[in-house]
Amino acid sequence: MPLKNAPVVSTQMLIRKPVAEVFEAFVNPAITTKFWFTRSSGRLEPDKTITWEWEMYGVSSQVEVKAVELDNRIVIEWDDPPCPVEWQFIPQGDAATLVKISNSGFQGSDDEVVTQAIDSMSGFTMVLAGLKALLEHGIRLDLVPDHHPEALTESWNNRSE
């Protein structure tokens, strides 16, 4: 049965920290590398191309930064062909932020599109859970490397903590 509508992945999480702190966690790689990717070529700024690396898997992604609206919204495109990802940061009083992430533009056969959407949903949900643990409790959960331990590079497995 063919897809009637292209999937749009949406996930969200309440983070009990002020919007400025939560927003900074996504634009500042010194923070983001504690819960998502392991290396970045720079801070997210409009019209920049950034490289994000997941050294544990030996992969990287080129990220085209389309919009950065301070404490409000981030839009990037990544993958080939480009898929847009949007983060929205919605204050919940002075001490909490609802982070909403959407991803769309998946390409390929219907089966490939569905697989990409499911992977995206699980990935961004893990990213939000890792961020919540880090910002609210100061805990690094290592969700991203622990998600596919069989795919970790040998050098990652042999590193000293």
Mind explaining what this structure looks like?
This protein is 31% helix and 30% strand. By secondary structure, the protein is an alpha+beta fold. The chain is globular, with a radius of gyration of 16 Å.
Q: What's the helix and strand layout?
A:
Blueprint: E1 9-15, H1 19-27, H2 29-32, E2 39-40, E3 49-54, E4 59-69, E5 73-78, E6 83-91, E7 97-103, H3 110-137, H4 143-147, H5 154-157
Antiparallel strand pairs: 1-7, 2-3, 3-4, 4-5, 5-6, 6-7
Main sheet record:
7 strands, antiparallel
Number of helices: 5
For the biggest β-sheet, the strand order reads 1-7-6-5-4-3-2
The counted number of beta strands is 7
The residue fraction in helices comes out at 25-40%
Q: Flag low-confidence runs.
A: none
Please state the overall shape, judged from the principal axes of the Cα atoms. globular
- What is the average per-residue confidence, as pLDDT, rounded to a whole number? 94
Q: Based on helices, strands and strand pairing, what is the structural class?
A: alpha+beta
Described by its quaternary structure, the protein is: single chain
The rounded distance between the terminal residues' Cα atoms is 48 Å
Tags for this entry?
alpha+beta; 161 residues; 5 helices; seven-stranded antiparallel beta sheet
Structure in a nutshell:
The chain is of the alpha+beta class. About 30% of the residues lie in helices and about 30% in strands.
